[in-house]
Amino acid sequence: MATRHFLTLNDMTSAELTDLLAHASKLRQAWRKGATRDSLKNRVLAMVFEKSSTRTRVSFEAGMTQLGGAALFLSPRDTQLGRGEPIEDSARVISSMVDAVMVRTFAHDIVTRFAQASRAPVINALTDDYHPCQLLADMQTYQEHRGSIAGATVTWVGDGNNMCNSYINAARQFGFNLRIACPQGYEPDASLVAEAGDRVRIMPDPAEAARDAHLLVTDVWASMGQEEEQKARKQAFAGYQINPGLMQLADKDALFMHCLPAHRGEEVSADMLDHPGSVVWDEAENRLHAQKALLEFLILGKLD
Ligand code: CP
Ligand code: NVA
């Protein structure tokens, strides 16, 4: 059977994603009750990080250990990747020794090339273009709090970045309607928006986009790799903030999510993470459970 990879949400069918999230919620419940599990005993995940991380590293590393396996942290500072060894050679070698590889990098093309040369499943743990693992956690969290997201209205406020692109994929895979409020010049990938058809609408005014929405989501104004644009972005994004005032325009049961890390006073007001509609801490924890489900799916080829 061909090796499966998870580079974007489109690498799985809607039905597979539904099963994966149900399994993730089961894993969460069992883990919270103290149950142990060794489904990935003796299995190894290699984790290649070319950008910083807290949640992604901790969740993958803890997840592998909790399932009886192990994870290796590889940084370009200490490996030959950082000294220019071709991606394909690295992929071939690393994947010949482990059961799965997780990659966090800059250009999306790097994970695509890595996957093409890898004999083990490759997981995209964030590129400049997509962050699909975060969407697994977000969708799991919405479902645990509010049931199915199909037919719901989701409002993205801020940069048309990797997270926003992944929300566009999610809108199609999970059947929700996505409104994107972003300043001119910071829109998400135009071809993705066009392919999504009626599912996705760009609405520059955050207040209009937030009206009656069931979920409000945002992310930092300047992503990793855009540090030099910080000042210009601060100006461009002024007004694109999720705060209790914006939440009031949304549905009364609306939830708020942020992949974190958050910049209080920029894309979120200082009090937003503790708002009654905020589920950001469950969202962060669900990275662990959703990725444990993903690792079982990719390594074992089944969920049970
Ligand atoms: N949300 C997220 O991916 O966080 P880290 O950058 O800390 O991994
Ligand atoms: N858009 C952010 C997400 C961080 C988890 C970034 O790429 O830096």
Descriptive report:
By secondary structure, this protein is of the alpha/beta class. The chain folds into 2 domains: about 10-130 and about 285-300, Aspartate/ornithine carbamoyltransferase (Rossmann fold, 3-Layer(aba) Sandwich); about 140-280, Rossmann fold (3-Layer(aba) Sandwich), CATH 3.40.50.1370. Helices cover about 40% and strands about 15% of the residues. It has 11 helices and 9 strands. α1 packs across α5 (about 130-145). The protein is globular, with a radius of gyration of 19 Å. Norvaline binds near residues 163, 219 and 220. The site of phosphoric acid mono(formamide)ester has 8 residues, from α2.
- Ligands bound, unique: phosphoric acid mono(formamide)ester, norvaline
Widest β-sheet, arrangement of strands: 7-6-5-8-9
Look at the structure and give the mean pLDDT.
97
Q: Output the structural class.
A: alpha/beta
Outline: globular
Proportion of residues in extended strands: 5-15%
- Helix fraction by DSSP (H/I, runs of at least 4): 40-55%
User: If classified by CATH, what would the architecture of the largest domain be?
Assistant: 3-Layer(aba) Sandwich
CATH structural fold name of the largest domain: Rossmann fold
What's the CATH superfamily of the largest domain, by name?
Answer: Aspartate/ornithine carbamoyltransferase
Question: How many domain regions?
Answer: 2
